[in-house]
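re: ur question from yesterday

yeah so i grabbed the chain u mentioned. its 158 aa long if i counted rite. heres the sequnce exactly as i have it in my notes:
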Amino acid sequence: MRARDLAVAYESVNVDSDATEAARLMAEHKLPGLLVLDEHGAPRAILPASQLIKVLVPQYVIDDPSLAAVVDEKHADRLCQALRGRTVADCLPRDITPPPVAAPDDTALEVAALMAQVRSPLVAVAEKSKDGTHLLGVITASHLLHELLDASGTLPTP
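ran it thru and got these structure tokens back, copy pasting raw so excuse formatting
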């Protein structure tokens, strides 16, 4: 199995996309994170759902989680307002690292090793050429596990 054969279409956003729309996309598709593309369509970052949650939680609650108990439900229901007017770039951590990117001819084991090395739930598959980087798709950890289990005969047949 090669990365190009394992890659599937996956929801992505641009750095200048609306943060609320990114959150809706994650929630609607139950995604652990989104692939963030730069202005040229090349993989720039992974925005984990947990990072968006962090943006929603007031800093004083992150600093002292016991304060969460004193925030009433009426105010807790308004947490998503923290995303209004923000872009995806605004929500990325300051120490952002580039997402893991596999070459189309990488093997499943190479993709698994990359995923394990950087502890990422997804790997972008992209082809680099003289005119830039072209995204072919994404391999998620769950999809990779499914394919590896299927190849080993471990998955039950329907």
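noticed a couple things. Residues 19-29 form the longest helix (11 residues). also The longest strand covers residues 132-140.
anyway ttyl
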